[in-house]
Amino acid sequence: MAMTARIWVTLKSGVLDPQGKAIAGALDSLGFSGVEDVRQGKYLEVKLDAPDEAQARQDVERMCEELLANTVIETYRFELEQA
Amino acid sequence: MAMTARIWVTLKSGVLDPQGKAIAGALDSLGFSGVEDVRQGKYLEVKLDAPDEAQARQDVERMCEELLANTVIETYRFELEQA
């Protein structure tokens, strides 16, 4: 079964986000004075083939745990849909 | 009005994604043989203050056009909600 996983990997709250801070600073210097905070994370789309949705869900969970997210400082969530 | 913008910045289709290719290769070497393709993009959460939603929408559009997305090779979309 061909499926697409949409995965969000974001920093856990409380973890400093230097990239987000840099973007917020750049936005401010471009004149966006209303910006209060910026958090940047990763968004991935993975096309995968799996026997069924349950197996696909397990595979994506393991992909996140083993490679896509540094679970010490990052958290992840994903959505699965048939391609 | 305090608002939160959720922004996705992704490569336009047809644009080579070396990062995605590297991730696909790493997943394959970890034993995820069912992975066909991986595309990686940016996901940002921006907390901003604006007089109203229309102004917030304009501001976020401009943020994407001027800084957050390289519109030659990337496309963006966003959702706005009251914080």
TrEMBL record, chains A, B:
Which sequence ranges form a coiled-coil region, renumbered to this chain? none
**N-terminal signal peptide:** none
For whether the record's keyword set contains Cytoplasm, the answer is yes
Superkingdom of the organism of origin? Bacteria
Q: Does the keyword Plastid apply?
A: no
Provide the alphabetized UniProt keywords: ATP-binding, Cytoplasm, Ligase, Nucleotide-binding, Purine biosynthesis
Localization in the cell: Cytoplasm
Q: What is its EC number?
A: 6.3.5.3
Cellular component terms (Gene Ontology)? cytoplasm
Q: Main localization of the protein? A: cytoplasm
The record, for InterPro entries, names: PurS, PurS-like_sf
GO MF terms here are: ATP binding; phosphoribosylformylglycinamidine synthase activity
Q: Which Gene3D superfamilies match?
A: Phosphoribosylformylglycinamidine synthase subunit PurS
| GO biological process: one example | 'de novo' IMP biosynthetic process
Q: Which PANTHER family match?
A: PHOSPHORIBOSYLFORMYLGLYCINAMIDINE SYNTHASE SUBUNIT PURS
What's the family?
Answer: Belongs to the PurS family.
Its quaternary organisation is: Part of the FGAM synthase complex composed of 1 PurL, 1 PurQ and 2 PurS subunits.
State what this protein does: Part of the phosphoribosylformylglycinamidine synthase complex involved in the purines biosynthetic pathway. Catalyzes the ATP-dependent conversion of formylglycinamide ribonucleotide (FGAR) and glutamine to yield formylglycinamidine ribonucleotide (FGAM) and glutamate. The FGAM synthase complex is composed of three subunits. PurQ produces an ammonia molecule by converting glutamine to glutamate. PurL transfers the ammonia molecule to FGAR to form FGAM in an ATP-dependent manner.
Q: What is this protein called?
A: Phosphoribosylformylglycinamidine synthase subunit PurS
